[in-house]
Write a structure and sequence with these properties.
- The protein is an all-alpha fold.
- The chain folds into two domains: 232 residues, no CATH class; 237 residues, no CATH class.
- It is 82% helix and 0% strand.
- Helix 3 crosses helix 12 and helix 14 runs antiparallel to helix 19.
- The longest helix is centred in the first third of the chain and has 36 residues.
- The radius of gyration is 22 Å and the shape is globular.
- The N terminus and C terminus are likely disordered.
Length: 496
C-alpha cells in the first residue's frame, strides 16, 4: 500500500513518483478523453440532443448537492499528518457514509420541484435514480485519497480508465437496445459502483465505521472554508446549466454541453495534474518548509506552456473540429467551443495559484473568487442575453471567469507567489497565436478546403506558433519541459 512505500523514503524517491505521476496523469487524461470522445460520437448518433440536455440538468443538480456538502475530505487526507492513520481514515469513511445517505434523500425530495421548475417531467424520475451515485460514493474507501497523498497515480489512473470503459460499454449497449437518456443514467451508476468496490480492494485494510473526536475536529476545521469554497464553486461552475436550462430549448442545451466538453479539456487537464501531483507535493514541501516560491516558479511556466498550446488550438479550430466529428445538428457547438475555450484559459491560469493557496490553508481567497464569479455570472449573462441573445450570454459566461482568476492570483501574490505579470504575457501570446490560426484557417476555407483541412490548418498554426514563443520563454527562464516534473524534489516524504 502507498503508506508502506512512504516509510524510509527520500527526496529522490518522491521526485521519481512525481515524475511518473505526472506522466501517468497526462497519459491517462489523454486516453480517457479519447475514449470519451469516441463514445460521445457514437452516442450522439444513437440519441437525440435532448437526452444530453436532460442529463446535463440532472448532473448539475447531483453534482451541486455533492459540492454543497463538500468538507474537503480528500484534501484532508492528503495534507494531514494523520492521513495514514486507520482511526483518521475510518472517521473519514463514517462521515462519507452519512453524507451519501443524506445526499440521496435530498435528491429524491428535490425531484418533483426541479422537474416542475424546468418543465421536464422526466427529471422527476431521473433524479432519485442518479442520486444513488452519491449514496454509492459514500461507501467508497478513503484509500484513493491515500494513494493520491503518496503520488501513487498509476493505480488511480488505472482505476479511472477501468471504470470509464465499463461505464461506456454499458451506455452503448443500453443505447443500442433502448435509445434514451436512461443509457447515460445506467452508465453513471455502473461507474460509481465499480469505483466503490475497487477502492476497497485497493485499500490494504478493512474499513469500519468509528469516530475519532480529534480527527473529526481537524476535518471540520479544515473543511469549513472548503465547504464555503465548494458551495460557491458549484454555483460558479453549474449555474450556466440552470440558467440555460430555463431559457433555451433542451436540444440547444445538449449542443452546448458538447461545446463545453471540448472547451474544458485544458483546464481539466491542469486541474488533474494539480490534484494528483502538484497539491500532494506542495503539501509535503510545507511539512518541512513554509516557502513555496521556488517550487511554484518551477511549475507555473511549463504548465502555462501546455495549457496555451491546447487553448490556442481549440480557439482556432472550434467550428472545423465540430463539423468534422459531428452531424449538422451539433454545428453550433463549434462557436460555443471557441468562446468557452477563452474562459477555460483563465480557469487554467487560476489552478496553480489556487492549489498553492489550498496547500497553505488560505482557502478564503478561493471562496472569495468563486463568490465574485457567481455575482459576475448573475450580471454578465443576462446582459449578454439582452445584447446578443444566446451568443452574448455565452460570452458573458466566459468573461465571468476573469474576476475569479484575478482574486486567486492576488491572494497568491499576498503569499509571496508572483504570478500576474507572467500570466498577462502568456494571455497575450495565446490571443496572438489563436488569431494567427484563425487567419490561416480562413485563408484555407477561401480556397474551398473542407473541414479536415481547416481543422489541421487552424489548430496546427495556432499551436505551433504558441509553442515557438513558449519554448523561447522556457529557455529564457532556464526551464526545460521537465520543469513540470522537477517540483517533486522539494523534500522527502514525511514519516507515516
Amino acid at each position: 500500500m502507498a503508506r508502506e512505500e512512504a516509510d524510509g523514503g527520500s527526496a529522490s524517491s518522491l521526485r521519481s513518483r512525481a515524475l511518473h505521476g505526472s506522466a501517468w496523469t497526462i497519459g491517462g487524461f489523454t486516453l480517457a478523453r479519447l475514449i470519451q470522445l469516441a463514445s460521445n460520437l457514437i452516442l450522439t448518433r444513437l440519441l437525440f440532443p435532448e437526452a444530453f440536455g436532460l442529463m446535463a440538468l440532472v448532473n448539475a443538480v447531483v453534482l451541486g448537492l455533492g459540492q454543497l456538502s463538500d468538507l474537503g475530505i480528500a484534501p484532508s487526507v492528503v495534507r494531514s499528518p494523520r492521513g495514514d492513520e486507520p482511526r483518521f481514515l475510518d472517521t473519514i469513511w463514517t462521515i462519507q457514509i452519512v453524507r451519501g445517505v443524506l445526499l440521496w434523500s435530498v435528491a429524491g425530495l428535490l425531484a418533483w420541484p426541479v422537474a416542475r421548475f424546468f418543465g421536464q417531467p422526466e427529471l422527476g424520475r431521473l433524479l432519485p435514480v442518479v442520486g444513488l451515485v452519491a449514496l454509492i460514493g459514500g461507501f467508497q474507501s478513503p484509500a484513493l485519497a491515500v494513494l493520491q497523498r503518496h503520488l501513487q497515480v498509476r493505480r488511480l489512473v488505472t482505476l479511472e480508465l477501468g471504470s470509464q470503459l465499463l461505464a461506456i460499454t454499458t451506455m452503448l449497449l443500453w443505447a443500442l437496445v433502448h435509445p434514451s437518456v436512461w443509457a447515460l443514467v445506467v452508465g453513471r451508476l455502473v461507474d460509481a459502483s465499480f469505483r466503490a468496490i475497487a477502492s476497497h480492494r485497493m485499500s490494504g485494510w478493512r474499513m469500519r465505521p468509528r469516530w475519532d473526536a480529534a480527527a473529526g475536529r481537524e476535518i471540520l476545521l479544515f473543511g469549513k472554508w472548503i465547504f464555503v469554497s465548494t458551495t460557491l464553486s458549484f454555483l460558479s461552475g453549474q449555474l450556466d446549466r440552470f440558467i440555460f436550462g430555463k431559457t433555451i430549448p433542451l436540444g440547444l442545451l445538449g449542443v452546448y454541453t458538447i461545446g463545453l466538453m471540448f472547451a474544458m479539456i485544458p483546464s481539466e487537464l491542469v486541474a488533474r495534474l494539480g490534484n494528483s501531483v502538484v497539491f500532494p507535493s506542495f503539501s509535503r514541501k510545507l511539512e518541512s518548509d513554509r516557502d513555496l516560491s521556488g517550487t511554484y516558479r518551477r511549475v507555473r511556466t511549463p504548465v502555462l506552456a501546455l495549457m496555451g498550446f491546447l487553448v490556442a488550438g481549440l480557439v482556432a479550430s472550434g467550428p472545423a473540429l465540430v463539423e468534422t466529428l459531428y452531424d449538422p445538428r451539433y454545428a453550433d457547438a463549434g462557436w460555443i467551443l471557441q468562446i468557452l475555450a477563452l474562459g477555460s484559459w483563465f480557469r487554467a491560469l487560476e489552478v496553480a495559484p489556487g492549489f498553492a493557496l489550498l496547500s497553505l490553508g488560505a482557502t478564503r481567497w478561493i471562496a472569495l473568487g468563486h463568490a465574485t464569479k457567481v455575482l459576475c455570472i448573475g450580471c454578465f449573462v443576462p446582459v449578454g442575453f439582452r445584447l446578443d441573445g444566446f451568443s452574448g450570454a455565452v460570452w458573458g459566461l466566459a468573461a465571468s471567469q476573469i474576476p475569479l482568476y484575478a482574486i486567486v492570483a492576488w491572494g497568491a501574490q499576498r503569499q509571496g507567489l508572483r504570478t500576474v505579470r507572467g500570466d498577462l504575457a502568456a494571455t497575450g501570446w495565446v490571443a496572438l497565436s489563436a488569431l494567427l490560426g484563425l487567419g490561416v484557417a480562413a485563408a484555407v476555407a477561401g480556397e474551398g478546403a473542407g473541414s479536415v483541412a481547416r481543422l489541421l490548418a487552424g489548430a496546427g498554426t495556432a499551436s505551433l506558433a504558441w509553442l515557438a514563443v513558449a519554448y523561447a520563454r522556457l529557455r529564457r527562464e532556464g526551464h526545460d519541459l521537465k520543469g513540470l516534473l522537477r517540483f517533486g524534489a522539494v523534500s522527502g516524504p514525511p514519516s507515516a
